[in-house]
Specification:
The C terminus is likely disordered. Helix 2 packs antiparallel against helix 3. The longest helix is centred in the middle third of the chain and has 57 residues. The chain has 3 domains: 45 residues; 71 residues; 40 residues, no CATH class. It is rod-shaped. The chain is 58% helix and 13% strand. It is of the alpha+beta class and 197 residues long.
């Protein structure tokens, strides 16, 4: 007595009832082993990403290193500016002191000789007033003689930023880019990010 043959909808092969049941069991095992297991592994990886930053720690470390390097460069620039400012202040102080030296000598000479004339007093007073004005301008940091030049050409919103580039239709690669004239002039690859559905 011959058994009825049935076809598999997927592979289109014909089986007897017993072998069709075996075939369906093999497909169920294959589905569990290949599809369900892969799905569960991916889901597990996503949950790990949600629970910790283990995969992104290195990427954040790169950003942190860039920050430290940039801060060091800024501190070095500020230190240079302070050194230059100290030199400029000393130079101006010495210049004012040199202006006062001949007047000091002349005042001593007049006192020693006890020789005072109205013209000398007026002339010396005029010179002292000029020096006093120089000191006041120096102390008040006269805005017409700017000492500190602030370079506001840095775009702090774009000096480091994340940019996604479409690699193919399914994934994007994310990069941290720095401007060409930034303190470190480096690029960092931050990994693959699956686009939102």
């Amino acid at each position: 007595m011959g058994s009825a043959r049935r076809s598999c909808v997927g592979c289109k092969k014909y089986f007897c009832k017993e072998h069709l049941n075996e075939h369906e069991q093999q497909l169920a095992i294959k589905f569990d082993n290949e599809i369900v297991r892969s799905h569960d592994q991916i889901l597990n990886e996503i949950q790990k990403l949600e629970e910790s930053n283990n995969l992104s720690v290195a990427l954040f470390a790169q950003v942190e290193q860039w920050k430290k390097t940039t801060i060091n460069k800024v501190e070095e620039a500020a230190e240079r500016a302070c050194h230059e400012l100290t030199k400029l202040i000393d130079k101006q102080r010495i210049a004012i002191k040199k202006q006062l030296e001949p007047i000091t000598k002349e005042i001593r000479s007049h006192r020693e000789d006890e020789n005072y004339f109205e013209d000398d007093i007026d002339r010396l007073q005029t010179k002292l007033n000029e020096i006093q004005r120089s000191i006041e301008q120096f102390v008040q940091k006269d805005t017409t003689k700017t000492v500190i030049v602030d370079n506001d050409q840095i775009d702090w919103n774009r000096i480091i930023y994340i940019r996604e580039e479409q690699e193919d239709s399914e994934y994007f690669e994310s990069h941290v880019w720095t401007k060409r004239n930034s303190p470190t002039n480096q690029s960092y690859i931050l990994g693959w990010i699956k686009p939102e559905e």
